[in-house]
Amino acid sequence: MSFDEAVAQQVALKAHVSDWREEIIYQVLIDRFADGDPGNNARVSSALGRWHGGDWKGLEDRLPYLEELGVTALWISPIVKNVDTDAGFDGYHGYWTQDFTALNPHFGDLASLRRLVASAHGRGMKVILDVVTNHVGQLFYYDINQNGQPDESVYGSGRPGQSPIERMSEYDPDFDPRGVQARTSLGESGPAPIVFRYDPATNHLPPLPELFQDPEVYNRKGRIFDFDDVDQLVHGDFPGGLKDIDTSRCDVKRAMVDLFVRWVELTDVDGFRLDTLKHVEHEFWRYFTQNVRLRLKARGKTNFFMFGEAFDGRDDLIGSFTKHEVPAHPHDEALGGDLERENGSEAEGGCPGDAPITGDMVDSVFYFSQYYQAFRDVFRDALGTRRIEDLWAAREAHYGTKPNANGTGLPPTKTLVNFIDNHDVPRFLYDGAGVSPFKADPEAALRNALLFLFTEDGIPCLYYGTEQGFRGGNDPANREPLWISGYDTQHPLFRWVKRLTALRRGYRALTVGEQTVRWSTDRTGGSDEDAGIFAFERGEAGGDYALVVLNTHPKKHSATSFGGEAMTTELEPGTVLVDVLSPGQKTYTVGARGAVVVKLPPVSGALLVPEDQVIQGL
Q1: 512-613: CATH topology
Q2: Are 128 and 305 in contact (CB under 8 A)?
Q3: Rounded distance, CA 278 to CA 282, Å?
Q4: Candidates 3.40.640.10, 3.60.15.10, 3.40.50.300, 3.20.20.80; CATH matching 3-134+247-503
Q5: Mean of the per-residue pLDDT values of the chain
Q6: Share of residues in the chain with pLDDT > 70 (%)
Q7: What are the residue boundaries of the structural domains of the chain, listed by start?
Q8: 3-class secondary-structure state, position 315
Q9: What backbone phi and psi angles, to 5 degrees, belong to 603?
Q10: Are 324 and 400 spatial neighbours (Cβ–Cβ below 8 Å)?
Q11: For the chain, N or C: smaller number of CB within 10 Å?
Q12: pLDDT by residue (tens digit) across 560-587?
């Protein structure tokens, strides 16, 4: 069935979400979750860099496992056809696009993808597609020596200070701001032509649709080697030979909207996770998100959630992709972010569409700065908790504070996607107790981090396998097949996550309540009274309320007090709070000026709610 024929089989679209803050996202690498159809197991292996056999039917079959865990939304890896294998590694992850119009046969067909989405919706679960617009796989080489074949060349004699040895791969040459140049031993000879590969056995074929076979559609500047250089960051090939698309072109912008809206129309999925956000111009994301929303709204699909991934610790850079200001960041300014130009004619660099482009951007981002400053620095390495408060204090300045038109109805500041593990970073348990001189039990530290994840403002996202205690290091070691766990619903971490998801869904304050820090500290010593303490409250005026207290210190009991001063809240004196996590439902009575002193053992936490709001059985 051709893509155009499939479009004729569009399904009815509807909004399946009322408030994205109420969702609990679970990230799935399809190839590693469950193998439901042995018939699509081409070239599977046990090596982590190879295909393993997971598919959409396997995920559908295991939805009861995720339902028991408390998951309400599935973020699945890219669905389109990929380069099958390259340089000894396979495209199991989905980030090496070859054909934007076809599904990956390793995962199933359109019918099986539709069944997965429909089955998820039948259980109240939503589905989010991972979308790649920045690049395609290694589908062409730069014919630098113009001999019509891909080569690796060595230039120079190695004479010190006169003729350094330089290695050149025509698949993946270093970045050149002029564009990759042709050259021989006699010198340069202008821009290097590109040659698309043709190897059906590995699916190295000219990309589809045909627009992407035009060399002008690519920036052709070579591999990024300096990620602090904006030109390289946005216009360079992703390391590994992933060829960078010129996303400033109007025909590319329109094609990307058409291609990915059609996948929604064919499946009724509920959102996009947008890959490599910082490697694409802000102007592209303005055009893409606004036109996707308009197109889907016309089909009855509203509240469609689009969040992006900028793999970076710079909070202001990450947040700029959610801000309505133009330019939103110095990177944007350096690339010419200008609404007047963007709304001009194509000759002026614009891209006329159904409506004028505004400053609206993505709905949210993967909160990478929190991954570094909270989950790594505090929960793993036991550094001072003040860094969490400082990070949160910058949120209003760094992130969008207004909802996007035709979007989720919520500002990005309220829908940041929080995570501990993902497919691009080592798992929390891989690093064990971190750098602290006081070594904590790694699993206890993870339990504490999970408590923070499921009680803080925003949307929690759990990476598959965290609930089974997986502890793999950098890619591909952090991409283990889940079936080695036996899908153990009695694993202590599975049961802990199950309890936390139930608490989050049960106590409204934990999903929609305003968030206020009540205690943080720079102190980490073995004798400091409040070392490692972090406390914040969630709630609505006159309504639901929750107070979360965490002790991140690896070895000592710590309390919400220091030097005779106790933590204060807005609660009325005499209010009785119940720690719903403690075995005996321990209580605390609020003192004068709303004071509450909570003392906790090492790497542990408390979730306190007013006595009259306690839900029995949670």
Answers
A1: Immunoglobulin-like (2.60.40)
A2: yes
A3: 8
A4: 3.20.20.80
A5: 95
A6: 97
A7: 3-134+247-503, 140-244, 512-613
A8: helix
A9: 35, 65
A10: yes
A11: N
A12: 999 999 999 999 999 999 999 999 999 9
